[in-house]
Amino acid sequence: MILKKTLTSEDWIRASFRALTQGGPGAIRAEAIARDLKVSKGSFYWHFKDVASLQSEMLEHWQLAATEAIIENVDESGMKPEEQLHLLIMLATSTRNEPYGGVLAEAAIRDWGRYYQLAADTVTAVDEKRLKYTRDLFLSCGHSKKRATQNANLLYGALIGLEGLACQQLVNLREDMLYLLELALQND
Fold it and tell me: What phi, psi does 33 have (nearest 5°)?
C-alpha cells in the first residue's frame, strides 16, 4: 500500500512561490499549482479560501521566513556585531530559498510588487526592516550614523543586484557579499 503524503499550507505556499518565480504573478493559480503538486484543486481549498488569501499568506510567510527568522537567528547567536554581520550575509546567501524558487524568488516578489499593492507594501516593509537592522549592526560596530546607513544601503542594494547576476552564474553571491562586507567594515 502506498501512503499519499498530505500537503500542508506551507507546501502550497512553496509551490506558489516557485510558480511566481517561473511564471510571474499570473502563475499563482490554484489549478496550475495543484497540477504541479499532482493533487486535486480541492486540496487548495482545504487550506485557503481563495487565491487572494493564498497570496496574502505567501507574503506573510516570506516576511517571517526571509526576514524575521534570519534576524532572530542573528540576534540569538550571541556574536559580536562584526560577526553578526558575517552571519547575516551567510544566512542571506544560503540555500534557504531553494524550496521557494531559489535565488530568483526575491526578484520575483519585487516584480510582483509592481502589480499587486499588498506585495508592494510587504516589500517596502521588508526592505525598511532589513535596512534598519543592518544599519543598527553597523552602528554597533562603531560606525557613525551616516556611514552605518550608507554601508547598510550599499550592502543591501548589492545583495539585490548580485542575486540577479548569480542566477546567471556570473558571480559568486556569497563570496562577493562577504568581500563587500569586509570593505564596509574597514576603518575610515
Answer: -70, -40
